[in-house]
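User: For a teaching handout, I'd like to show students what a predicted protein-ligand complex looks like in token form. I'll give you the sequence and the SMILES for pyridoxal-5'-phosphate. Please answer with just the structure.
Assistant: Understood, here is the input followed by the structure.
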Amino acid sequence: MTEKLLPDHPKDLEYVKRNYEEVTGRIALAAGRSGRKAEDITLLAATKTVAPEVINYAVSLGLRYIGENKVQELLSKYDEYDLTACELHMIGHLQTNKVRQIVGKVSMIQSVDSLKLAGEISRQSVKNGVTTDILLEVNIGREENKSGVFAEALPELLEQTAALENIRVRGLMTVPPICDKKTEVLKYFDRMNKLFIDISAKTLDNVSMDFLSMGMSDDYEEAILSGANMVRVGSRLFGARIYR
Ligand SMILES: *Cc1c(COP(=O)(O)O)cnc(C)c1O
């Protein structure tokens, strides 16, 4: 995905604390405006490029979900995360040949967009004696070269993945197209919400539509107002990412 770098900030802990309070406060307000409670919305911190000690500090403030988007980075930080109070999710594009490296380590894989990938998660989960929660990732903007299944292919993928062993489908995830205007991104959020509601209305074995994961630093409040109950926030918590 394209990264929009915000002005850099000192990544000191006070800064993270202020951000965490601001983001959780805004989530509570947006939850209230959408007729829900703060605790109905799950904040997942997108922790790419963030040092484990900073992540663990955020966990000490009350953060309960973290997500990495690259297998290699996840593995290199794995031993240092404090996962006693916090769940680790995979939120980025995942290659089938890397699945075995993370099954058993992550609580959820949010970026499942093919039967091939789901099948491998199932196989590795069986092998490890675990059940892996997954979200199906939807390419709601129908963008070329972007992960996610198209909306019209979702019902079939849902049915196929739900039939696999040691997998539980827990909801949907999306990364909408980069939009210049907030009104534009709302259109995608609303489409996702509609898909989510439609699927939730059906009773499918092995599927529980618990999470609609959408909304990032620039639009998590809008996403909540459009029905998201999990938002993935990175730079608003930890500052601009520095890539080397
Ligand atoms: C980095 C990332 C986010 C968070 O992005 P920010 O704009 O920094 O909040 C959310 N979802 C995924 C899949 C990401 O890779």
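For the handout, you might add this sentence: Residues 1-10 have pLDDT under 50 and may be disordered.
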